[in-house]
Amino acid sequence: KVLSASCAPALHRMKLASGAGRRLVGLKTKTPLFNRIISRGSICQHSLYLQQCTRIFSTQTMTQRSKLGNDNVKNDTTTIRREGAKSDSKSLSVSSEAIDGSSKKAAESPANSRPKALSQLASSPFELPESFVSKYEKKKAPFGFNGLGELVYHRTYSRVMQNGKNEHWHNTVQRVVEGTFSMQKGWIQSRGLQWDEREKQDQAQEMFDRIFNFKFLPPGRGLWAMGSSLTEERGIYAALNNCAFVSTHIKEGMKISKPFCFLMDASMLGVGVGFDTQAAQQNIRLTKPSENETRTFIVPDSREGWVEAVGLLIDSYFTPGAAAVKFDFSRIRPKGTPIKGFGGVASGSDVLEALMEDIQKTLHPLAEKNEILSISTIVDIMNLIGRCVVAGNVRRTAEIAFGPPTSSDYLNLKNYKENPQRMDYGWASNNSVFAELGMDYTDICERIQDNGEPGLAWLDNMKDFSRMGDEPDRKDKRALGGNPCLEQTLESYELCCLVETFPNNHDSVEDFKRTLNSAFLYAKTVTLGHTHWPETNTVMTRNRRIGCSMTGIAQFINSKGLHQLKEWCEGGYDHIQDCDKKYSEMFGVPRSIKTTSIKPSGTVSLLAGATPGMHYPESRHYLRRVRIPNSSDLLEPLKKAGYPIEPAIGQEGTAVVSIPIDAGEGIRTVEQVSMWEQLSLASFLQKYWADNQVSCTVTFDPETEGKEIKNALNYFQYQLKGISFLPKLPAGAYPQMPYEAITEEQYEEILSQIEFLDFGSKLDQNPERLNPPDLYCDTGNCEIAK
Question: Which of 237, 247, 423, 491 has the fewest CB atoms within 10 Å, i.e. is most exposed?
């Protein structure tokens, strides 16, 4: 049979018209699979057959196929060789691709290579009409908090466009919406489902308006990555998700390094990761690498290369008779070199070399004694990886460790009097315990009173319940932990998919439900994209877990009352279930296992001028301080507008901008809300809204409330899935605190000195000024920060 010319457009749409795709055109074959494709007539309706056929005919020309659809691919060589051996006879060469600093083996089978971006499977990219977008060009975006929201947007989420200029708000919203609907279009058309352009335009324009006016927002990573080359060209959909969890339990045949490598890989993508200490219960013994045989690994200049190097080092201490590994870091680009794709600059090889040395210092003494892998060793290595990732202030991420409440070794990890060596890296994770219902909380609460840790997660509640007000459903019976901010129950290797709504920006519950239509559609679309982790895809394809969150809750209670919040929670939750049913049928995918959360929020809430998550503000009037490099072109407009700016103490080359904030008339503050009321609000939201979890950090007075924590936990253990505590800090505990309460008179005085803030065209002159928002949980409450 000969492939008819009428099929060529379909081939082109699927990005197969070059390379292997061209070889199909005019090719005679007796392959039954290929003939089935021809007989079906419509290739675009049977794309899976075509993809299988392409793999058959592309095997002979693997090298050419690796270049399909990507002109930026370079080929590197990673060499593992025996020390002192001849390179031509004793070396193993692995061809790898380096795309924007990442590498992978070109010798992989095509079936395992990264799938095409969904937008590339569409007949054409989805585009909003220019006549529609132009209506918003001159419209003032309703950023919140006296310029703070706009500053955070330009500093964090504005990308460089093809014309070399930086995005303004309407450009960002357009990119996000068009990226969302291009993903949908590619998914629907590649599966032969119905695509109604008129209906989708209506949905897209509604979504655009609701994002523009801060009715809802994608998470920070979505604002940065959706519709960019990361998703449109490379299909890196992990960039759209938030946090993750991985269990250290080692299954048969699994390398010991696997959970550690997953955490590092995810962290380098900005994904915050939770992990447990289950491997410590498996009696895994360390063994000293052979001193008679060594290997040299040339570390590729890529994320994957760094991760592989760490994995090789760790496994060499758990494989009897393994050769010692030496590492060559010569290929790693110098510190300060710009990184394409995700943005930012390279940190150089020093931080990786330090990590490898620290891991070796941690494992070698234990291997010499043939000791068993312990809880402290697991957390040490995870924390050392976290410190490496954030070193040089290039990347940010988050970690949370989960351990047993009865282990003194685990509970004392942050007792630096007992473990002084951990002071240099112990800060890299928040530490929580898997609390057991009915346990004695005495010891835990004494530690909480001291420094706020550990937090608590009730895994039984996480597995048994959706909303705590409903009957047990055991939907999450496979769950093993949660993400660093603990708003999502997760299985091992599962990622979070979040979206944020602002109920206080709505006049009626009907309007709020219209927003939920768009917000949940965005999140459901994100679940269509696969990651480069097969284990993650397996879990996420099955669960389609979503966390549709509400933020600005303190403001809503102040303006509309707790009873209306209950009605909006219940009505909104039911409406989301209807949305999930509708969108799941539209995409031909399973219903989402869970749908709602309360995330802590952070920079996203600042854009809209909302209080973060369910938390109350420090004061009605306060200064919010933001640190900005002196080289940033954001400083000049802020100086011109009259904002207070001073040098950062202890951080050379950085300025601190103080922005006056009014959280709203009549709003209650942390000082006015007791520990018991904060716990009650978390329980309220876990009962009426969140079928995943409520992220809540309870601020308490150590003197008056510290001794009550045990009594509180005895009651609330049956109403919550997780909780953390934070002792109140006295005003002025250290200079230039992020939040500083001020009086109304001080607020008015500072505000009177500030004129109209206009970033304008100044921002278009330095497109390299920005670093990407690497934090998937976009809040300072759970990021790694020394």
Answer: 423
